[in-house]
Amino acid sequence: MTAPGRRSSTFTRLLRHGFTDPSAAERLLEGPELAPVRSDPVLLDALGATADPDLALLGLVRLVEAQDGHPAQRELLDTLIAAKPLRDRLLGVLGASAALADHLARHPHDWQALVTYEAQDLHPGVQEFERGLADATDPVSLRVAYRRCMLSIAARDVCGTTDLAQTAAELADLATATLRAALAIARAAAPDNAALCRLAVIAMGKCGGHELNYVSDVDVIFVGEGTEGADEQKAVQAATRLASHMMRICSETTVEGSIWPVDANLRPEGRNGPLVRTLSSHLAYYQRWAKTWEFQALLKARPVAGDLELGEKYVATLSPLVWQAAERENFVADVQKMRRRVVENIPVAEIERELKLAPGGLRDVEFAVQLLQLVHGRADTSLRSGTTLDALKALAAGGYVGRADAVQLDDAYRFLRTMEHRIQLFRLRRTHLVPEDEADLRRIGRSLGLRADPVKELNREWKRHAAMVRRLHEKLFYRPLLDAVAQLAPVEARLSPDAARERLIALGYADPAAALRHLEALASGVSRKAAIQRTLLPVLLGWFADSADPDAGLLNFRKVSDALGKTPWYLRLLRDEGAAAENLARVLSAGRLAPDLLMRAPEAVALLGDGEGGGLEPRDRAHLEQEILAAVRRADGGEQAVTAARGVRRRELFRTAATDIIASYGTEETPAVADQGALVDLVGGAVSDLTAATLAGTLRAVVRDGWGDTLPTRFSVIGMGRFGGHELGYGSDADVLFVHEPREGVAEQEASRAANAVVSEMRRLLQLPSADPPLLIDADLRPEGKSGPLVRSLNSYEAYYRRWSLVWESQALLRAEVVAGDADLGSRFIELVDPLRYPAEGLGEEAVREIRRLKARMETERLPRGADPTLHTKLGRGGLSDVEWTVQLIQLQHGWVEPGLRTTRTREALAAACAADLLSAEYAATLDEAWVLATRVRNAVMLVRGRAGDTFPSDGRELAAVGRYLGYDPGHVGDMLDDYRRTTRRARAVVDELFYGA
Fold first, then answer.
1. Alpha carbons 781 and 725: distance in angstroms, whole number
2. Which residues of 740-775 are buried (b: 16+ CB within 10 A; e: fewer)?
3. Which helix (H) or strand (E) element contains residue 276?
4. Which neighbouring-strand residues pair with 223?
5. Backbone Cα Rg of the chain
6. Per DSSP, what are the bridge partners of residue 411?
7. How many CB atoms lie within 10 A of CB 108?
């Protein structure tokens, strides 16, 4: 007896052998069931070698208890001690699977299935499993026999007798035998149906690929034909009844549970299509209607049950179509869509534990291999394997995948699949989530041979392999392309020019020959620069391919690299700062504007990094004005000063465009910004601030050059239109008014001459031909329009507005805001116009009718001929003009009494009107959504085309690029146009009610 306070020697030994609850284990060992063997050291050593010694001991005690009497118990225990193969197998299973322990407790004689240890037992195939299921005559007995066969598979797996690939193949063979047995039971139950038809069962997915999990849906497709002389329709109906019965036999839950669901949703038309089709019906569907993913699924098609001759004919008939899939019109768009990992449907709480679908998971490996098979399997039949690891090996042997990459991917895939197997084996439940419980993680770690600190080691190995997959997923496609063009050390296999061309086309490159030339120029040679490029390019090419124009992305990258290649910081920035390379790839492949701005000053690449000198946050007006005015002071002469100011403007336009693109596309670490309105406000504010700072600098330069420190007249620039509203787009002109006031003692004529000279020189300098984008000043909103003087004195404005002002001018002045020049003069101008734009008691009925007439005339006269009114962002139905005029009418009517409406900004005014109950929240949201969308489209057109436009592009690639900017996947430009029309149609209905009173 152990002394109080001291632990028994058994307790200590149990701890040393890996038991986590030695007290419970000690009680089990002291029980009568294990009395004959409890002192045998072999037993404790064997239990300590299992994944979970506590679980194994409990399962053994339950198994001994379940034996029929003492002789049966003695036989089990004697065999257990005497036969090491049985001991390792049985205890290994009991320590890894509570579900199989339950099965053994219910069927206590099934342990004898683990006794035999012959050559055929080590690697059984379909025939051996068919013999194991031969006595099953109903769903219940089939389940018992199935578990008995699985018992032997699991035993070989946990003992290391078979590796991952062999285990997955055995599970697929057992599934094949089970489908055959289930079909035989269904046939026996309905011999009349069986006599009418030929039914072939085609395995798909992991079963078809000979790489099944322990618990997985078994994907199938059914093919039916009539027997000789049978009516085809009746034969298909009979085959459908047989197929349905077979599925129920496997799927339904009985007293022995279920086997697995049989899933036929990969069939043509999915769950909406007929369960069974004839071969000719299958062929017609795949020839006319099938999508790329359906051909991808057919890579794994394998006849497994029923009429195997018909099944082989099905595979032979459809196989040519599979290998032509890469030539289909929508293949590239489909591939781009599939390549973006679909993780949106994974709950946020689970994504970090997801083995299959998360980035770096099993799906990444399987998709990459299947895509490369579809691209290159047309010409190389050695790649046509349905098994992932076999296909990966063939891809490496053919040079389609780098050998080192293939080895690393093989290791990672084996580890992740084995981990998945161990997770499923415990409860025999279908799951791909890594458990959170420490006991579960400990069991899984120990089952993988991680014994020192199983939980910590398991997490480290899992994360390491997932990171490896994530890193290799993109490089897998592109590294062989570089090997093909770099021509460095000889390798056994290299991509042929044709294979490289096929791969680039499949990944979205329209001009593969040019792309290969760019790669050769960037990556050839033994220089350090070329070596770094070879490291960067596999990832960059993937990011380019994720855009609407990969060719432009690669070409632009070559141009930037040629311009900056000799600078020491450029490649170091891309290599060492995680964000910079991806940000650059996004910017270079999203359209023309940002790359054009960058090419004029490639050193702006530094803005894309996250280190010193980097940062994409647009700068505020005060900082911009400070930098521009400092540059003006340093310059010699007006032209040099304004050149410096335009240079700052170009750099900051690039910063804003880059921020907008990256926020719209998202990155691997940061999803796209969901709040479209915030992006519109960011761009509008940044470009407006930048324009104001540029005008302030230009004004200072002109005054200094012509008059020294002091102009004879005070001078102020008033922003109008989108400029005054802080809503400028990338291609917007700057709408302004110029106001001056003669200084004391200066004649009106002299002051006017000086003011006009300032305006003339400002416009000239800002439009001088240079590498920087011009800034166009538009003063057409001035009194009398183009017929009136460019500049007026404050007194002149006051006299004009008092006597001649029209209602449209009051409306235009709603946007007036001081942007540059004499702040005091500007403030007095604003005080002057406030009574006009916020008239006391609001607008009269005649003024409202006049505004409506003007709007109606503009809609009919100014919309370009041939333009689609449903897609014109400015003048079209529910577009910018509709929303802005509606908001401005509310401001004119109610601004005098509602302070919140006294703003130059459309969205602020709309929100204020809603807060004041001048329109409903629903109407406000509808108008805001349409205005934001139309503004985003205009910004997108400028970013993509490099020139302003008010309609969607007609060119397919440009339209796709606009779609990507707006968040639409490849192949969904039709959805984009439909959504735009729907959004603006709703807005127009609100405009008709609020503006026109309809």
1. 14
2. bbbeeebeeeebbebbeebbebbbebbeeeeebbeb
3. strand 276-277
4. 200, 277
5. 37
6. none
7. 19
Instruction: Look at strands 713-719 and 817-821 and give their pairing.
Output: antiparallel
Q: How far apart are CA 757 and CA 752, in angstroms?
A: 8
What is the phi/psi pair of residue 809, to 5°? -70, -40
**For residues 854 and 881, what is the distance between their CA atoms, to the nearest angstrom?**
12
Residue the block writes with tokens 């003339």? 760
Contact between 637 and 705 under an 8 Å Cβ cutoff? The reply is yes
pLDDT digit string, tens, across residues 463-478: 999 999 988 876 777 7
Asked whether 501 and 516 are in contact (CB, 8 A), the reply is: yes
Evaluate whether 17 touches 41 at the Cβ level (below 8 Å).
Answer: no
CA distance 780 to 801: 16
| Distances 562 to 533, 593, 981 between C-alpha atoms, Å | 12, 19, 43
What is d(CA 792, CA 420) in angstroms, rounded to the nearest whole number? 78
Q: How many CA within 13 A on the CB side of residue 180?
A: 20
- Going by C-alpha positions, the residue among 429, 449, 462, 435 that lies closest to residue 51 is 449
pLDDT at 534: 83
Max intra-chain CA distance, the chain: 127
Specify the pLDDT at position 342: 54
Q: How confident is the model at residue 491 (pLDDT cuts 50, 70, 90)?
A: very low
Token code pair at residue 806: 């029209």
Distance separating alpha carbons of residues 869 and 145, to the nearest angstrom:
69
Q: Give CA–CA dist 555/537, Å, rounded.
A: 13
- The single-letter DSSP state of residue 453 is S
pLDDT tens profile 769-779 = 887 888 999 99
Helices (H), 546-569: 550-564
Separation between Cα atoms, residue 903 and residue 894, nearest integer Å: 12
Label each residue of 102-134 as H, E or C. Answer: HHHHHCHHHHHHHCCCCHHHHCCCHHHHHHHCC
> Distance between CA atoms of 988 and 844, rounded to whole angstroms?
24
Q: Alpha-carbon distance 78 to 621, whole Å?
A: 88
pTM for the model stands at 0.76
